[in-house]
Amino acid sequence: MRRLSLIALLCSTLSLGAVTGCSLLDERQRDWIFQPGDRAWGGSAASAEGMDEVWIDFDSKVSREAVRLHGLWLENEPALHTGAAQAPILLYLHGARWNVQGSAPRMRAMQQLGFSVLAIDYRGFGKSTAELPSEDRAFEDARAAWDWLAARYPDRPRYIFGHSLGGAIAIDLASKVQDERGVLVEGTFTSIPEVAASMKWGWLPIGWLITQRMESIRKVPYIGAPLLVVHGSNDSLIKPDLGRRLYDAAQEPKAFVVVDGGTHHNTILRGQAQYRTALHQLFGWPPAGTLAQAGE
Q1: Is the separation of the CB atoms in 231 and 262 below 8 Å?
Q2: Active-site annotation holds for 164
Q3: Nearest 5°: CA angle at 140, between 134 and 145?
Q4: Which residues span the domain enclosing 267?
Q5: Contact 263, 234 (CB under 8 A)
């Protein structure tokens, strides 16, 4: 999510609510919050080279239409691990604006931590079905990808990861399934209304008009797997306090990691060593031998 889009939401929601119907208000918010499109940033498209394309087809109960999701698959070769025949699998759920190719550098960072990674585009992003996203549709897309992984890799441990807006989608998924080995979120929040309240125009009384609420704070207590919450200390878009509040609301076992100097965009790269240590302490992965090889 971009700061300008949320400020636009704050400044415009009241006037929109006064002069338009609920349907248009909902559509405008969905567009502002998700910012769907086929965009990748910087060299991220080049980073996706060599990854396998994945297609996930299902019938949506939300839209009552056939849906096709596009994803990227990055396998982790067994030779990269110590004492592991097959790497655990991470479902990567990206944030707003950028398509799945924009997640390629973060996918490779997770591969370096020992995971095989599947990242998907929600409806409205990249090559996935062209449809305006909503929280219900994104939640359904994540569940479809999770079920796809379960059907194809039933014997491999699976983890859920979400960055920014994807963190809310990850928490929703984790609160509904029982077969995840662990959950990781980075740079995410308690709810969309609380993100709006933390910004410059947060004093405006628009919380009740927000339709895409993403209320992770209410769902996180229902996660039964270990939870790792990571935040950059210099994240100016999603305040670290929101990540801390989310962590506080979760049940044990859990861990909260603040990456010094990390921003909303570079925390996963800047905090690679902290990630590796936290993953081992909370999930027992990567194996101890991998930590030793990394000099940690």
Answers
A1: yes
A2: yes
A3: 125
A4: 36-283
A5: yes
| CATH code, domain with 189 | 3.40.50.1820
Active site residue 264: yes
Q: 34-48, 76-90, 206-220, 248-262: lowest mean pLDDT where?
A: 76-90
Question: Is the confidence at residue 21, as pLDDT, over 80?
Answer: no
Instruction: Tell whether 75 is covered by a domain.
Output: yes
- pLDDT tens string 142-173: 999 999 999 999 999 999 999 999 999 999 99
Question: Tokens representing 289?
Answer: 């031998």
- How many domains does the chain contain in total? 1
Catalytic residue among 70, 264, 265, 280: 264
DSSP 86-123: S--EEEEE--SSS-GGGGHHHHHHHHHTT-EEEEEPPT
Hey, how many other C-beta atoms are within 10 angstroms of the C-beta on 213?
A: 15
pTM over 0.90: no
